[in-house]
Amino acid sequence: MESNRHLYSTGLGKVVWFIRRFGLKEIFRKPVRTLLAPWILPRLPAGGFRFSDAVLPYFYHRYNCTWANERCVEVAIARHFLGQFEPKEILEVGNVLSHYFPVSHTVVDKYEPGPGVVNKDILEFRSDRKYRLILSISTFEHIGYDDAVGDGSRKKILQALASCRTLLAGDGKLMITVPIGYNPELDEMISDGSLGAGKQWFLRRISRRTWVPCDWSALAGCRYGQPYPYANGIMAGEF
Predict the structure, then answer these.
(1) Which of 75, 133, 201, 220 is the most buried (most CB within 10 A)?
(2) How far is CA 170 from CA 84, 133, 137, 167, in A?
(3) Domain coordinates of the chain in residue numbers?
C-alpha cells in the first residue's frame, strides 16, 4: 500500500526521514529546545512581521519549537485568515493548527490521526459543504516528495489544488504556506508560475527570529536549513 512507502509512516522511518530532511544535528538540538522551552519562551522578545497590509505578531509555542523555525510566521498568517471566517466555513488540509490551539473547523489529513481529524487523502475527500476558506500550513511541499518517493510532485500538487478548488464556495479562497528550498519541484512551480496562485507573498529570514517581506527574486538560491535551521524563506499563496 502507498502508506507503507511514506517516509515517516513508522517510528524508525520517521527518524530516517527527519535526518534526511533536517540533518543529524537536529536530532539532538530539537529535544534540547523542547526541554528548555519553559525557560526560553518567557524570555523571547516581542516582535512582529509585515504581511500584506498588516503587521502580525510572531507566534511562539513550545510544540515544534516555533521560535526556531518557520512556524512562527506560518501560524501567525493562519490565525490572520482564521479570524475572518466562521469555523463551519473552514477546511484545513494537514493537521497542523490543532497542535497549537483548540480548533473546531474541519481537518483532513491523510496520515496523522487525531480527535476530529478526517484521515483521507484530499483527492478522496468529499463534502456536501462548500468552504469559504481552505487553509494548508506546510503540507503541500510533502505531496509526492515525502509520501510517495520517486513519483514526483508536480502532477500530484496540481491534483491536490484542483481537489481543493472543487470544495470552495463561490467566494471562497484557498490559502497555503510552503517553505522554500525544501521540495525542488515545488520551487520550480513557484518560479515558472505553474502553481497558479492568484496572490503570492514571500518572506525571507534574515536572523534566527526575524522575517521580512521580499519578492521571489530575493529567495533565489534560498537553501532549506542554511544558514538558519529549517526554512529560510516561505511563500504564502492565495488561490
Answers:
(1) 75
(2) 16, 11, 22, 10
(3) 2-238
> CA 98 to CA 82: how far, in whole Å?
13
Contacts of 196 by beta carbon, 8 Å cutoff, 6+ apart: 158, 161, 239
Planar angle of CA 222, 230, 50, nearest 5 degrees: 70
Q: Is 89 helix (H, G, I), strand (E, B) or coil?
A: helix
Q: What is the pLDDT of residues 149-206, one digit of tens each?
A: 556 899 999 999 999 999 999 999 999 999 999 999 999 999 999 999 999 999 999 9
Asked if 108 and 92 touch (Cβ cutoff 8 Å), the reply is yes
Second CATH level (architecture) for the domain 2-238: 3-Layer(aba) Sandwich (3.40)
